[in-house]
Structures are given as C-alpha cells and as structure tokens.
Amino acid sequence: MLHTFVAHVSDKPGVLTRVASLFRRLNINIVSLTVGESERPEVSRMTIVCEAPDHAAHRIRASLYKLEITVDVDEVGRSEAVIRELCLIKVAAGPKTRSQIFELATVFKARVVDLAPESVMLEMTGAASKIEGLIQVLTESGYTILEVSRTGRMAMRRGHHTSRVLKALGTPHSDHSDETSFPEKPDADEILPNEFTGVHEDEA
Amino acid sequence: MNSQHPQLTGAEIIWATLVGEGVDEVFGYPGGAILPAYDALRKFPIHHILVRHEQGAAHMADGYARASGKVGVCIATSGPGATNLVTGIATAMLDSVPIICITGQVGSKVLGSDAFQEVDITGITLPITKHNYLVTRAEDIAPALREAFQIAMSGRPGPVLIDITKDAQQNTATFSFEAAAPAHYRPHPMLQAESSSIQQAIELIQQAKRPIILAGHGIIHSGAEAQVLAFAERQQIPVASTLLGLGAFPTYHALSLGMMGMHGESWVNNAIQQADLLLAFGMRFDDRVTGNLAHYAPNAKKIHIEIDPSEINKNVRADVALIGDLRETLDLLLPLMPKKTDTSWIGEVNAMKGDAAVRDIINLPDNGHLYAAHVINDIWREAHAAGRADQTVIVTDVGQHQMWEAQYYKHDVPRSLITSGGLGTMGFALPAAIGAKVACPEKDVWVIAGDGGFQMTAAELSTIVQEGLAINIAVINNGFLGMVRQWQEAFYEKNYAASPILSPDFVKLAGAHGIDGAHVSERKNVIPTVTKARTSGKPFLINFQVEKEDGVYPMIAPGAALHEMVRRPAADPLLETAEDE
Hints:
Shape of chain A: elongated
CATH topology of the largest domain in chain A: Alpha-Beta Plaits
Oligomer: heterodimer
Structural class of chain A: alpha+beta
Number of helices of chain A: 5
Number of helices of chain B: 24
Family (chain A): Belongs to the acetolactate synthase small subunit family.
Radius of gyration of chain A: 20 Å
Low-confidence stretches of chain A: 173-204
Largest interface: A-B, 24 and 19 residues
Strand order of the largest sheet of chain B: 3-2-4-5-7-6
Mean pLDDT of chain B: 93
CATH class of the largest domain in chain A: Alpha Beta
GO cellular component, one term (chain A): cytosol
CATH architecture of the largest domain in chain A: 2-Layer Sandwich
Catalytic activity (chain A): 2 pyruvate + H(+) = (2S)-2-acetolactate + CO2
Order of helices and strands of chain A: EHEEHEEHEEHEEH
CATH superfamily of the largest domain in chain A: ACT-like. Chain A, domain 2
Strand content of chain A: 25-35%
Low-confidence stretches of chain B: 575-581
Shape of chain B: globular
Structural class of chain B: alpha/beta
Largest sheet of chain B: 6 strands, parallel
Subunit structure (chain A): Dimer of large and small chains.
Distance between the termini of chain A: 6 Å
Number of strands of chain B: 22
Largest sheet of chain A: 5 strands, antiparallel
Enzyme class (chain A): transferase
C-alpha cells in the first residue's frame, strides 16, 4: 500500500541523503518526495510517499525518528489530510486543436500557462488521481503529450492539528495558553468542509 | 570579540572540547590532514595511544566504552586513515556502543576534487554511524563535538563521526565550552512508556504461568541490573541472556538460565519455546537468538521493553511494547507488581536440563585431549579461585572460542565480557582489550582469540608493549578457522575449503615484541600457566594447542526452529572416552 509521511527535518547539507538512504536500506521505493521550506526557520518539510507493506509504516516512521536530523514525523492517511500535487503538462497543439484542449482544461480546473505555435502548457493542482485523469483524457483523445512534470504529493493534516513534538518546540505565532486543548486528531465533525470534497486520493 | 573567551585554533578547540567532555585517553594514528590537531595535542592533558592500524583505534575506543560505560574516542587522518576505521565503526554501531571518531579531511576549498587522501567518509559511514558531521569552520568544531557526545550517549547509544577539514583545524575561533553546549535534546514523542501499556504489561505478567526474561545488552547500557534482578526475584521469573546480555544477571543465581539462541543450552531454548510470556529487556530478537521466526516461541505473549522504537515489531511482534529507558520503565513497573511465590515453572525448566549437563564437554573425563571449553572454563575457575572473577574482563574475538566463552565462562558482573555480537568482527579482541585495559587498569584483562582472528590484528601487540599494558592473551589454536570448519562439516560435507590456517609460533611472535609467553597442550598445565600469566604484572601470551576438529554444541542450523537443537554427537570419535562413564 501507499504510505504518506510528513517529516520535518533540519535544513542542512546532506539531510536528503540521510532520508533517502533510509528508504534505500529498507529496500523501499519512494514514489514521490517533495522538500521545501516550512513555517519554521532552519526546518524543511518533506512529504514522502512510498510503496510498502501495511505493517512497515511503524518501522519507517520509527526509523525516520532515529535520524538525528529529524524533528518530527507524521504519517497521514487520505481521510485525515489534504494531499495535493502540482503538475505541468505540455501538449502538442496547433491553432486548430487548441480550443478543445482549453475546454478539457476548464473541466479539470487546469490553467493554461503557456501558449506556443506548436504546443500548450497546462498547470494543474489537485489529487494525483485527478491529474492522472487529465493525462488519461488527453492521451485517449489523441493528443500528444510532450512533457509531464509532477511535483509529487504534498500533505497537510486537516484541522488545527499540531504534533506534540512541534508543540513542545513552540510553534511560531502559536498561542501557548490553549495549546493543550487541541486534540491529537480532530473529530470528524470538526473537519472543515473542503471545496475539493470527493477528489481525495483513493489509495488502496 | 568576547574578551572572556580565548581565541583558539580549531585544532586546540578539538582537544579543549574533549577535555571538557571528560576525555583522558584517545586512540589514534596521525597523518597529513589531521596533523594540525596532533600539533596541538601535547598542550592538553590527554593521553594519546598510538595504534598500529586505524581499525585498532576504533576497536580500542569501542573496548574502552564497553568496559567503562564512557564514550571512547578515536582519531585518524583522512582517506585511508578514515576508511580503516570503518570496520570498527560498524562493529560499534551493531552493538550500540558509544564512540566518537574524529577524522581529518582535506581543506574545504578542495573538497570533492579527489585531492590527495580525500575520501567522502561522511558518505561512507552514513549507514554505520548514529550520526556524522562534516565540519569546515573552526567555530563549528566545539558545537559539533559536544552534540556528538550527547548523541553517542543518549537513547540507544552508537558511534558518531566528525570529519574536520584541515583549514578548520588551522583557523582560529572564539572558544567557550559552555556556549558550545548542544541545544536541549530533541524530544521524542515515542520515548515514554504509556500508562495503558504498563497496565497491559502487568496483566500479562500476572496471567503468565511460564514467563521468561530475555536479558539483553540494553540492561547494561541502561544500568538496570539491580532492577532486573529485583524484578526476576519478585516475580520468580527465570532469566535467559543474549550474548551481549551476559553479565547483566549473575550466573550463580538460581533464576539464571544462561545464554539463549544458536549456541545456547538446549533447555534454555526449550524453555523459551514452551514459555507463555517473554519479557524482552533491551534486546532486539536477533536472528541468532530466535532461530526460525515462524516457529519462535509460538505460545508466548511478548512484552518488549526497548529504547529504540524502530526495534518494536521488527522481527517479533510485541503484544505490549514499552518504549523507553529500561531502568526507568522497570522502576515504574516494579512497585505495581505483586509478589509471586509459585516456583513450579522454574522446577519445570530445571527438569528440562535432563542429561544435557552430563553430555556437556566440561563434564567429560580427561581423555588426554585439550579442549577449548576446558581452557576457557579453567581461566574462569582460576580467576574465581583467586577471588578476581569480578575484577576480570574477558575480551573475545569471533568464532568457536567466542561461543565456548559464552558457554563456559561464568559472568556474574556487567561489563565483564566484551565481544563483537552484532557484526561478528574477527580481529576485534586484541585492540578492544587494549581499550578495556586503558579504561580499567586495575582489572585483569584477558584476550581470548582464535588463531585466525588473532592474526588479523596481531600488529597491536606492539601497542601493548609501547603502552606497558599488562594484558593476558589466550590464543585458542586449533589450526583451523574453527567456526567456518564446523559449518563446512555440518552443511558442506566436510569440504574444508580455505579453513585450515597456518600460524606463526605465537609465543615467538610475542617474544619478538618483548612479551613473555608459553605453549600449553595438556589440561594439567592450563591453570598453572593461567596463574603465571595473571600474576606476572606484564603482558603474557599463552598459545593453547587444542583439539583440531572440535565443534560448538548444541547448535541450531540456520533456518531451523529454536527447539531443533543439534546435540554433541554421542559417537564423536574424539570423545570415545565419554562412552566409558
């Protein structure tokens, strides 16, 4: 099954190698990995999606904690988190075929970000399944996809969730007085309604 | 900038930080990229032990750490100096031993250019260190070193390597030991036994009729020997040990079962297979301990007390996992446990011994042959008779003699056995014993090594002499790589490919270094020679010429279940006299 981990790690040289090496050693393939800045200085945020047996999640999480550069690790499932991916797709299209692609883009809430005599570039944000849907429709409609660049998944828990570790470290701008009142996992009815309801990933 | 704190070179900062961390001795070997550090060495109250090979330096730091419970420190130059440390670092990693390795590195401006003696040692050691650092600025040395000490000792201990470029050693920076203190240790959300789990554990223990404690290295790391003893006595639970757990629980105790696993006694393994509850204390269910996992302790619930969350459910599924420091966890548990008086299970376990003890090689009558088991048992008996058993540290190499040591030497106190368990590093004994002797000069330190492993690091004999260390060396010489030969006998139809080994005259070799020695090939000479070595006050080497094709029994074939022990063959031609009894 697919597991999605969110790791906060120190922003230092070699950190990516340490994380990647851990998966290599466990002989687990990383499906996608995104790294970027987080809300706190000197801490990067990684979203790691990997294909691993059901029971491997604990071990991966515990092994990630074992790395000295790791500040915090969270495993997020599809129900508890918003998981998104950004994708750029360049499709071969001349003046005659463009408009049909524009229509498809509108249906999939993709944006046209570049227009060239021979091609169109689309930008799309969403769940991986939606992106795959657009690619599939484009291919099945007979268009030639020239390039695809996907960021890989990014994940964030719904609700006002902060891990115990990050709380202990003190969140920037956090109100310390009511810190402890946040439940570990928000109740179902506390989860904010989401405009993308129905497009969450279906990861079997 | 800050007039209170001195400006020091990076080289001076290295030593000043080590002094601040309480380091008295380091093991090392100089070379180009670490020369600035060596240039500053003699300004500081640190004794440097010059090794003969950097692998030895890492093993010495390891032996020092295991014998003392403190961090061992080794130092080497870049390139080959650093790569020679690798086996020693991996050895420490697999056995969770806190050591600090400092390596020189080429100047930061030429990093990555394949400069002379440049090697990416932080890359190489990434999977075999708990953490490592590449330091390129003088001002970063003290914070990195201090953090390294904290990391090496905290949680599950382990080796940390700090690679310091030559220019970082040569440049100056303001030094303040206090200001370099690491930030508070990152909190670990998994690292505390939860009260609900404690409650579950208590229920399991109370329900258990046939519980066994599996005593691991973690007891010694945590300093939980007294808690384990109290726990076992209060609950009347027998205690089986892993190889690295030997010494954590006194062997003379009625509840002590001895070593479990591949070469454990058959009744110990049978007891584990029949148990209804296993209490794993600071051990990791290594494959040498469990045998075939599919058939391991099938009827037992498992309570796993362990500081490293990644060990939980790794090999054996735990019914209750208590994650945290063992001593703290047992301190929590102990007052909540009502006393038990039922000793019927212990009686059952003792009954399982059956004729195993009679067939034990140590109980066979003298048939004129010298067996390694006799030698090792006699070394213990000699120390015991002299009242020095608690003040003796045995450092073994890897192979048959190591298993015989575990079987026939009685370890009653922690840190009295130093051995490479996880990695199984041949050549470990001699250098590790040097580290142990440096850490504990008042103790008797014995090297027990085979003729194969001893030759891997025999160059360190010179180090012993240069340092004037009174280390006793017992070479168990059978002319074979014994464990390899035993496996070839058992699983490869006696195809002894490359297992017979020629050795020099070890006594003459010792003599060439100025070390006294003796040959022993008869049982009656064992104890007198051991006494002579122990009381000589100088290093002493004994070459024990033992039975060539002896085997370690009982044993579990790889892939077999824990109860499928292979017993000592009754018709062993070497043991004909055994039939006479």
